[in-house]
């Protein structure tokens, strides 16, 4: 049975839990992680998922979790970097507080970076290791709906942090070819993970998660170093 680990699973309506449930249905063993262990445990129990604590901004918490996965499983097949935040909707470059920018980068970029560093030794023990960075069209230059060269709307801190996350995807893909690790960015689309957003056009969480699950389930000869939505390449 393949093993997947997902970060940032603290909410019933979040993409993380839905991704975990879909992977479980496909036959994966799934570890969900959240900053608060009890929260992760409560979400995990009804779906027969495992739970661990991880704060992606805290290297020590990541190291403890990686050690536990090593002891319990000895390898990891799929890492889903889903933890994220700092949605500065309506924000502007000049109006954004620099501490907020630092927090966005520390979570959305460096959180995934720390996870990849800590879990790579376990990933290379898998016959088909995959990493999925949950990104956003807001981090694309030219995505026709959300891209920053197209959409005049806000989210400067969030968008630039996801742009940087996409850069991490590209750099890792180049570095990891010898290890056969596939790493891709996935935009789930605008998804109704918060109440009321469906009224603004957000789509069901299950549809957004399906694109993450698709990238998590790639075969050994699948693509790497690309940006996808719903299994289709979208522009950086
Ligand atoms: N919903 C959308 O339309 C959409 C569109 C594009 C991309 N995305 C991306 O999809 C991912 C999931 O988002 P979501 O919509 O499901 O919303 P969400 O509930 O806000 O998901 C983010 C999760 O990350 C966790 N998190 C934040 N900081 C963390 C940290 N330092 N360590 C560990 N976990 C942390 C949050 O947990 P806490 O409770 O601990 O804060 C939360 O569970 C995010 O990366 C988001 O940027 C979402």
TrEMBL record:
Molecular-function GO terms, alphabetical: oxidoreductase activity
Highest taxon, organism lineage: Bacteria
Alphabetic keyword roster: NADP, Oxidoreductase
Pfam families according to UniProt: adh_short
Presence of the UniProt keyword Oxidoreductase in the record: yes
Listed InterPro entries: NAD(P)-bd_dom_sf, SDR_fam
Gene3D superfamilies the record matches: NAD(P)-binding Rossmann-like Domain
Similarity remark: Belongs to the short-chain dehydrogenases/reductases (SDR) family.
Protein name (Swiss-Prot/TrEMBL): NAD(P)-dependent dehydrogenase, short-chain alcohol dehydrogenase family
């Amino acid at each position: 049975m393949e093993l997947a680990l997902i970060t940032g699973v603290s909410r019933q309506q979040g993409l993380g839990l839905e991704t975990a449930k879909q992977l479980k249905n496909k036959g994966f063993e799934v570890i969900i992680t959240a900053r608060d262990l009890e929260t992760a445990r409560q979400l995990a129990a009804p779906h027969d998922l495992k739970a661990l604590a991880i704060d992606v901004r805290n290297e020590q918490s990541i190291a403890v979790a990686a050690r536990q996965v090593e002891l319990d499983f000895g390898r990891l097949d799929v890492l889903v970097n889903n933890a994220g935040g700092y949605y500065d909707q309506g924000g502007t470059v000049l109006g954004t507080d620099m501490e907020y920018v630092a927090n966005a980068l520390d979570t959305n970029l460096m959180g995934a970076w720390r996870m990849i560093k800590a879990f790579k030794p376990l990933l290379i023990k898998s016959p088909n290791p995959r990493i999925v960075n949950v990104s956003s069209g807001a981090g694309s230059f030219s995505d026709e709906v959300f891209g920053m060269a197209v959409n005049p709307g806000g989210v400067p801190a969030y968008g630039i942090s996801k742009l940087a996350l996409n850069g991490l995807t590209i750099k890792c893909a180049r570095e990891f070819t010898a290890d056969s690790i596939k790493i891709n960015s996935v935009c789930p689309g605008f998804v109704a993970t918060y109440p009321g957003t469906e009224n603004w056009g957000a789509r069901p969480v299950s549809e957004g998660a399906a694109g993450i699950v698709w990238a998590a389930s790639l075969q050994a000869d699948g693509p790497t170093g690309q940006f996808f939505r719903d299994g289709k390449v979208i522009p950086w």
